[in-house]
Design a protein that fits this description.
This protein is mainly alpha-helical. It is built from eight helices and no strands. The longest helix has 14 residues.
Length: about 325
């Protein structure tokens, strides 16, 4: 490459704003989306072809190696996923990178059930589904509730911060202040899809109202304890699972407080059925201290420690609600 060509290319990149961070919308969480100032006073805004200004050999010099190599391998179609549509009609692509081949664990996308929109859709998750919940993610590899999740309005109509993961889920899963365009209809007044807010804050022992830890079937695996609030994604896999109701199908997709070196790394499987047998899920975290009933019975995934293995859990346990103290 001649010296003059290098100079011309450098001038082109400067004019288009390749190193101009002011073209990124830093007023929103994430800060990676391009805005109307992209380029020199917006000269690059509305352009569909990124290669008109940005040479693949020089972009992403300061990013992590995995991102740099993936962008170079897949080309310019990866741009929209992080930087938006640049004022065009081009779709934002997420799954071009986030898929079982390129980023298999970020997140796990295997399984026939995922949180698609509408939820009744049984097809594979699409880019549009990703953007509903992750519109402004900063893509830095570290999950932050208020950077990597879309800011939905709360019951007061305000964009308040999420204090725990459930705050995000409850912005949609409630009876009277659902998000426009993502309304949910429950089969009954107590359907967890719409009753979750009441359950979580007033009834559900996995939420703010904690169990006493003194009941007959008391016992939890480290590092779970009764005063703790359990994250929704400890039991529900948003991005892919073989179980209905988005129940995780393996410990590597949830139960994040467990000691990874001793437990999650062993990858216990979880299978639930329509008859209400959730024992393989419950036994991941629950292990009674004093084994009674069927406490020593293998639930089917190699673990024991819960009672009535193989039976319907729901008559006594409705989304964590206990008919007795101590769960």
């Amino acid at each position: 490459m001649s010296r003059w060509l290098v100079i011309l290319l450098s001038l082109s990149l400067i004019a288009c704003g390749s190193d101009d961070q002011s073209s990124l919308d830093t007023s929103r969480p994430g800060g990676l989306l391009l805005d109307e100032t992209h380029g020199d006073n917006g000269l690059a805004w509305g352009l569909e072809k990124c290669d008109g200004c940005h040479a693949m050999t020089v972009i992403h010099q300061d990013t992590t190696e995995i991102i740099r190599e993936m962008v170079r391998d897949k080309g310019y179609e990866t741009c929209s996923g992080c930087h938006g549509d640049n004022g065009t009609d081009q779709p934002r692509q997420c799954l071009v990178c986030h898929n079982p081949d390129d980023l298999p664990t970020a997140p796990y996308l295997d399984g026939r059930h995922s949180h698609t929109f509408p939820p009744s859709d049984s097809s594979a998750m699409s880019d549009e589904d990703c953007l509903v919940c992750h519109d402004y993610s900063d893509m830095d590899g570290s999950f932050d509730l208020n950077l990597d999740l879309t800011s939905f309005r709360d019951a007061a109509g305000q964009s308040s911060a999420y204090l725990v993961e459930a705050d995000f889920c409850l912005r949609c899963h409630n009876r009277d202040h659902q998000q426009i365009g993502f309304e949910i209809s429950g089969e009954s007044y107590s359907d967890p899809l719409i009753a979750l807010e009441d359950d979580y804050r007033h009834i559900d022992y996995h939420g703010w109202r904690d169990g006493s830890g003194e009941g007959t079937f008391n016992g939890l695996r480290p590092a779970y304890a009764y005063p703790q609030v359990v994250a929704c994604s400890d039991c529900h896999a948003m991005h892919g699972t073989s179980n209905q109701k988005l129940i995780i199908d393996t410990t590597r997709k949830g139960a994040r407080r467990l000691n990874e070196s001793q437990f999650i790394s062993r990858d216990y499987s979880i299978e639930v059925n329509d008859q209400g047998d959730y024992s393989q899920l419950c036994v991941i975290c629950h292990a009674m201290q004093f084994e009674i009933d069927e406490g020593r019975v293998n639930t089917g995934n190699g673990l024991s420690g819960v009672h009535l293995v193989g039976d319907d859990c729901r008559p006594c346990h409705t989304h964590g609600e206990a008919s007795q103290a101590g769960l």
